[in-house]
Amino acid sequence: MSMRYPTVSGEIEFLRDPDLPGLEVRASSYHTVAYPKHTHAGYSVGYVESGASTVFLRGRTDWLEQGEIVLIHPEEVHACNPARDGAWSNRMFYLDGGLIAEAAASVLESVVGELVFARPVVRDARLLAMLRALHKSVRRGDAALAKESLLLDCVARLLERHADPRRGEEAEAAPEPRTVRLAREWLHEHWAEPVRLADLAAATGRSEFAVLRAFKRATGLPPHAYQVQLRMAKARVLLAGGMPIAEVAVETGHTDQSHFTNVFRVQTAATPGQYQRGR
């Protein structure tokens, strides 16, 4: 059974279904919540149910209105927030990269390398209806076959209408700058530890200033904010698995549970407890 939890300025619901291990659904209603720029490990697909919002994505800020769908790549820096002085509600679907890759192999036989969406914001009435049906089906706890069919239909529509295989091939052909690659590797290896710019400079053989500038240019985030995203991704996995919140705080490199709760709330607009209970 799903439950809704109040926040300081709205309502939030997380849905994780054991029949659909590659999917997490988030339903939110907000008035004043402001998300910082952040990332997700997998693909994110969402739509505005009511009201309007701004969306920062691919280096620019645009309006996202009712009925429009936003398509976000893994680790792509973004932030969606309610329009000024306006309430809004949205639905977000977080899709595991493995699920997308498996579907792409069947739906788009020509896809090579990372899948890329042609446009970040689209209007697709059929996909919107399918996403709404999927959300309702998961929330009701329908039969596994029904939910699986809806999910795969959504993914197929997403790939057939909005994927850009050519750009995926180009992305594969353009290697990441060495400095950024080495800095990323260091952060992924030491994500739960205190890291200083001097560590990244030593790992890359560049000056602290050069590392910072190159990293921000390539990822859209400074190294510390990138590390926070790594910690939050791990925290979500541990919370969803039922680990006690205090233990998650320690495992993810936070000084204590209070510190972890504050960081998690800033990043997700929900407390760790709300996220963990939203099954």
From TrEMBL:
Gene3D superfamilies listed in its UniProt record: Homeodomain-like, Jelly Rolls
Pfam families: AraC_binding, HTH_18
Limits of the HTH araC/xylS-type domain: 181-278
Entry keyword set: DNA-binding, Transcription, Transcription regulation
Keyword DNA-binding: yes
Protein's UniProt keywords contain Coiled coil: no
GO molecular function: DNA-binding transcription factor activity; sequence-specific DNA binding
PANTHER family attached to this UniProt entry: HTH-TYPE TRANSCRIPTIONAL ACTIVATOR RHAS-RELATED (PTHR46796), TRANSCRIPTIONAL REGULATORY PROTEIN (PTHR46796:SF2)
Protein name per its UniProtKB record: AraC family transcriptional regulator
